[in-house]
Amino acid sequence: MAETQESSLKHVYFFLEEQAAVSPSDGFAGAGEASRYGTVTHAGLEEMQKADSAVTIEQVAASPSGDLPGAEYASTYGTSIPSGKPEMNPLAPAFWMRKKESASSVPALNAASSLVEIRKVEGKGCGLFAVASIPRGTMIISEAPLMKILNAGIHLTWGPYCRLSNQDKAAYDAMYGYQPPSIDFDSIARTSLVDPFDDTMDGGDVDKLVAEQIRVMSTFAINSFNLQPHHLGIYASISRLNHSCVPNVHSFINGPLGVNTIYATKDILPNEELTITYLGGRASYLPRSKRIPELHRKFGFICQCSACTDQTGASDGRRELLDYLAWGLNEYNDHSTATDACIPASHAAALSQAEDLIITLKQEGLDTIELTKAYRIASYAALKIKNYEYALQLAREESEVEKYCLGTDLRDLRRLGIATESWFKRIYETIEVWEGKEVAREYQELSKKEKQKKKARRYKKAKRVAAAASCAE
Questions:
Q1: Which residue, 277, 299, 321, sits at the end of a domain?
Q2: Which residue of 44, 90, 224, 332 has the smallest Cβ count within 10 Å?
Q3: Are 225 and 28 in contact (CB under 8 A)?
Q4: What is the CATH number of the domain that holds 321?
């Protein structure tokens, strides 16, 4: 039984790690938490840092063209688009962006939710802003893709774009395009989209067509999200979400519903901008000296979020600690035989380290899916040392964060057996094997009572908030 639990936990932990970095299109700039999927290994992170070691924040600021050293995109990106905006994307050496439209040239666009509106943002193009207070856990947007393509080549965007309605084209055309120099969009258009035997167009006509195709492809590249399985999609509203290293919403592709859902992971005030992270997993733990050049290289902007403008070093210190803690727990979860001060030597040590991870994530304001992973590993360690009550308490905390980030329609995760409710079931099964049915039943009853108490507290809080709002009116 214990072996089954360990393998199950490993599956869950790494599945979530992979999901954590999915944002719009991986390898391209995009708008969208690091949804919940995308893996960055410790070795991979070191290679990324090594490749970017010569790039400094000062260089980014001094290089408006974005022409900076760093890991180049694979040349194959011209025919195969990597996926994900949330965890994976971030920067690119040299970029091309369409001239920013003036406020008057951007068509009036309606957001896919009455809770937000699309506004111009200085230096960012457009973004989504709250028009009312949005409590944590609120599903703000549920949106089907404006357009989607098979993740087999950026040239596949042209056909679906041409078939969009005039209204959808207006929404698409109002977004920015981005073309890293390592991707030869011109060559892609001329070899994959232009008919060399079409003698009805002269050279000037061909050039105009290619320029339009490049605009469409580069717009999709920077604004698309990774869809499962093997597709990329762009959204009229969600693709306008800007990045923050301390996001306040989470993007989750709900497969069964065929929509991308945006949930508030924090309480959001009126007129506050909604932001996701284009980084995910352990990539989000990079120090600002790495994050800023990375985001600039891949997306062409200089991040000005609270973490990137922190001059005290406190944020960097917490993120460095998060990196060590997460890596060590990753190794522990993988049953590594390596000896390192960051790798817990026992289940009790793993529990303590996971608790540190949870505390530090909260201190840094990262109420993201990473927090559910921290709670899961802590709950697992508590179960291994037979601290059943604490294991269940940690699982309840994980369930809360899961609900705030992903909502309650988790059919995909349930089918895979990785939702928190599946973990609860495994905890009770383990207690039954180790202690007997009666003890397991007692803990189930205890858990039900705690759940009812928490529900009652939430209800009372909601009543107080409603009463306060009524008085304010």
A1: 299
A2: 44
A3: no
A4: 1.25.40
SS3 316: helix
In angstroms, rounded to a whole number, what is the distance separating the alpha carbons of residues 116 and 114? 6
Nearby residues of 202 by Cβ (< 8 Å), 6 or more positions away: none
Mean pLDDT of 215-228: 91
Residues in the chain: 473
Spatial distance between the Cα atoms of 158 and 163, rounded to a whole number of angstroms: 9
Helix (H, G, I), strand (E, B) or coil at 275: strand
Q: 99: domain CATH number?
A: 2.170.270.10
pLDDT digits (tens, 9 = 90+) for 76-120: 223 333 334 443 332 222 233 333 443 334 445 667 788 999 998
Q: Position 64: which residue type?
A: P
Instruction: Please state, in angstroms and rounded to a whole number, the distance separating the CA atoms of residues 52 and 277.
Output: 20
| Residue whose tokens read 């050279």 | 203
**In terms of Cα–Cα distance, which of 254, 276, 256 is closest to 265?**
276
Among residues 256, 274, 299, the one where a domain terminates is 299
Query: What is the residue range of 413's domain?
Result: 2-13+308-363+368-472
Residues 116, 121: Cα–Cα separation, whole Å: 14
The alpha helices in 279-313, defined as continuous H runs, are 288-299
For 322-346, write each residue's pLDDT tens digit: 999 999 999 998 988 888 999 999 9
Residue 320 and residue 271 in one domain: no
Q: What angle do CA 6, 11, 13 make, to 5 degrees?
A: 90
CA distances from 346 to 24, 323, 325, 341, 453 (A): 38, 20, 14, 12, 33
Q: Which residue's structure tokens are 């945006």?
A: 262
Q: pTM for the whole thing?
A: 0.75
Q: Are residues 401 and 451 in the same domain?
A: yes
| 331/357 Cα distance (integer angstroms) | 14
Domains contained in the chain, number: 2
Domain identity same for 170 and 315: no
